[in-house]
Amino acid sequence: MHKYHSVKRVIGQSDLIGVIILIGAVLVIGVTFASVTLTNVLSFTSINQVKTILMEDQSTLVLYVERENQTHVCLGLLRTLPDYRLYGFGLLSEDLKQDLSSAIITPIPGVFRLESTDSNRVYRLYQGEYYSIPIKGRINVYLLTDQGVREYILKQKPLLICIDKTILETNGYFMVFSFVNNELYEVRGWYVTSQKA
Asked: Rounded to two decimals, what is the model's pTM?
């Protein structure tokens, strides 16, 4: 009698363990499927959000020549709608293969900070689509500080950026970037003619 109860208890425990394993497997599969679905939804949503942000930046940012002479060109950057948005800019050669940021002059103190960034995080706008830039390695970009955003972007005041054309060995391309998801997307551009080209 005692032996029968022992065997029955062992069989019962085995069945219980089997059921627990089965439930666990179903839960794991369910959680995995849910996480994959959620990841896909989040990716899809984030892509749409990025596109929306970039389209808004392209329609609200104005880049224009404030003044120009034989040696320098000063560009004004203005956002027509106030919003807390982070922008950056850089200067590359016309073929986008050289960093020419040493020619940039930022006359307003405390508004920009110089940062070295991986070129893989920088995208060029061409005919409505975004592409990686051909330069390899790291490039220098200027990013707006919190002070810059609050005093200029939110107040709809124009920012001033100047370029010394005398030190450019080749024609340059000035790029204004929207900073989204730790990546830089071009939203405005301007060609700069070198005095030596």
From this structure: 0.75
